[in-house]
Amino acid sequence: MKLKFGALVLMAALTAAGSVRAEDPATIRLGAAVSLSGKYSTNGVFTRNGYDLAVARINERGGVKVGDKTYKLEIVYYDDESTPARGAQLAERLIQQDGVKYLLGPYSSGLVEAMAPVTEKYGVPMVEANGAAISLFRKGYKYLFAVLSTTDQYLKGAVDLAGSRSADPSKLRIAMAFENDPFSQDVREGVTEDAKRFGMKIVVDDKLPPDLNDMSATLTKVKLLKPDILIVSGHEKGAETAVRQIADQRVNVPMLAMTHCDSAQIAEKHGKIAEYTLCAAQWAPSLSYSDELFGKASEYAALYEKTYKEPAPYQAAESSAAVQVFADAFARAGSLDPKAVRDALSQTNMKTFYGPIRFDETGKNVDKPTILYQVQDGKYVVVYPEKWAEAKLRTPTPSWDKR
Amino acid sequence: MIDNLLLLLQNPSFALDVVLNGLLAGAIFALAAYGMSLVWGVLNIVNIVQGELVVLGGYLAFVAMGAGVPAYFALPLSAAVMFGVGYGLYYTVIFRVVDKDLFISILATFGLSIVIQQLMNTVFGSDVRSIDTGLGSFYMLDGAVTVAWIKLIACALALVSGAALWLFLRHARLGQAIRATAQNPRAAHILGIDTGRVYAITYGLNGALCGAAGSLAVMAWTIHPYIGLPYTVRSFMIVVVAGLGNVGGVVAAGLSLGALENVAGFVLGAEYQIAFVFALMVLILVWRNWRAARRRTYLS
Predict the structure, then answer these.
(1) Which residue in B18, B122, B130 is closest to A240 by CB distance?
(2) C-alpha dihedral, B188 to B189 to B193 to B199, nearest 10°
(3) Is residue A329 part of a domain?
(4) How many structural domains are present in chain B?
């Protein structure tokens, strides 16, 4: 027994040593702190899945060629427990103790906000895919890059759709109900800006509490003032609450737009009452984007579904794109020096299955538009931007007594 | 703000809608508040874990319905299981802090609330859940007043269970034992009441009430692992306003709090809804203190 155990230990030691020797020189290690527990755990896992899928695919294809050497990618993960303070600690740990020189982003703007000062301090480039707050890109960070569209872009499409279809947009009236948190207030900023541009009038502007589960007072106001557009943003709980209570209270509004309805699964859970709802999203498998690594967006979605046995969420898609951006930058930099990689990142200009990616001087992706789904016959169908749309917008939403 | 107020005054039918929806929401809070009042009165514990018990009750109903249990049965089922959870919690944690000072019990129940929150997050995930009962809503006055049936049912149920609780405490042997223990645990113990068991049953009863409130909450609104605190805070407020051992007061305070809150949300905007509730609580406490002080002067 003792001998057997000793042999096992020896074997384990040998394999460990062997693997280190075999891989070490030809591996680029990326660090990531993602939320595997706590309130962001669902999306944190999506993020990790996205990273893993891209790394596996790149390694399968032989890795990344930097100069005349080829490297495989590897990710060192930690669980940030969905808390910003922990995220900052882990960034420090990844850089200082684990010696990681490049970071992939965490999930959510709050976590990115906590980690960015650390990566900035050590001059470690971070490509993130799940922190969209516009405030992140107003701090002058040089080492932060984001592949996704910023939050202020989220629901501009809805205002644009309504405005461009109306003979006189300045007659349109908007009701807004936004959660009182940085994300939704960013969305609000974008919407207000666009509404102003069209000269639309904002008739309701409520800030919902972060622990919201009842917005009936706001909806009664909407019922009373009869606006042309109702825009809601409050993560999944906001989408869920709004869809339910709008039906419960029979609020008639010609256009309803919100964020997070696909992740809240409003069509699946609520069926008919979710019809006509417009949903802002970063990405959809039905878009006609494509690249060499994953092929078309739909092929990425199929690969994801095959690997993880669930439909591909956009959080995973953008996370995969972040890895692609790093791989592309390594190749173009021709060096593994973080400074050189950063400079290469800032010159990124690529087409991916997730959409075009090009960073402005603040590090945000300015080439990819956000899209709008509409729930049509129980499916999420892309209706905006019209260039990528699969179907025509169904508008106006009929009143409840006709549905 | 003024224009919102005018809007309400000019459209009384819509004002009715706001008040009615608030009243019905208040009923669910009242249900959770009975339990808190009971635990506070009998065990002298401010039960910070109240909201988490409500959410847990909601998850149990959600899971039961997912397994094919019909809604009208999911609710009592959740309440029954939550009775067990409460009973079990008493014998694992709560009994250790019953005679300790308020700070210890607040800390203990606060700790419990974190544990339950994280457990729910691990077991049920962080997604927002709700149950569509498919009951639809009910309309009056040209659609100006719309009330979801489930909210009406919730309100009726809250009133019925309030009455049942009152009757139970008044007439049942066990209810009398609970009241005796609340009044003077030592005397009750000397007279042969097993106070430990009374405490456990009281805490279990609280669990059951939370289970019912949670089941209704998941049918009327939404739940997720981190939504417990608002229920704790509102229960606390209702109990503070109503006083201990006053079931009727809890109903009245719960309903009026709900209605006032909704009107405030409409007039002041949703962002001041909760702030208004807290401001109101401070006012009520100051007023009660002032009244009590006056009474004291008379006595002296």
Answers:
(1) B130
(2) 90
(3) yes
(4) 1
Task: List strand residue ranges (DSSP E) for A121-209, in order.
Answer: 126-128, 144-146, 173-179, 201-208
Distance CA A15, CA A23 (A): 12
List all residues 6 or more positions away from A4 whose beta carbon is below 8 Å from its beta carbon.
none
Q: A224 and B273: CB-CB below 8 Å?
A: no
Tell me the mean pLDDT in the region A372-381: 90
Decide if B82 contacts B210 (C-beta within 8 A): yes
Q: What is the DSSP string of B19-63?
A: HHHHHHHHHHHHHHHHHHHHHHHHH----TTHHHHHHHHHHHHHH
For residue range A311-346, what is the model confidence (pLDDT) as tens digits?
888 899 999 999 999 999 999 999 999 999 999 999
Same domain? For A347 and A388 the reply is no
B146 contact A CB<8A = yes
Q: Are A76 and A100 contacting, i.e. CB atoms less than 8 angstroms apart?
A: yes
Q: Across the interface, do B126 and A177 touch by the CB < 8 Å criterion?
A: no
Q: Which domain covers residue A91, as residue numbers?
A: 25-149+286-358
Q: B270 and A39: CB-CB below 8 Å?
A: no
Give the H/E segment covering residue A372. Answer: strand A371-376
Is residue A271 in some structural domain?
yes
- Chain A from 187 to 206: CB within 8 A of any B CB: 205-206
- pLDDT of A20 higher than 60: no
The answer to the question of residue B121 being in a domain is yes
Query: Do A176 and A321 belong together in one domain?
Result: no
Residue A320 sits in the same domain as residue A389:
no
> What's chain A's length in residues?
403
Task: Give the DSSP H or E segment for A349.
Answer: strand A349-352
For A162, half-sphere exposure in the C-beta direction (CA atoms, 13 angstrom radius) is 31
**Ranges under pLDDT 50 in chain B:** none
Chain A residues in contact with B122 by the CB 8 A cut-off are 37
Range of the domain at B239: 27-245
Write down the residue that tokens 């229920």 correspond to.
Answer: B231
- The model's confidence at residue A232, banded by pLDDT at 50, 70 and 90, is very high
This prediction's pTM: 0.79
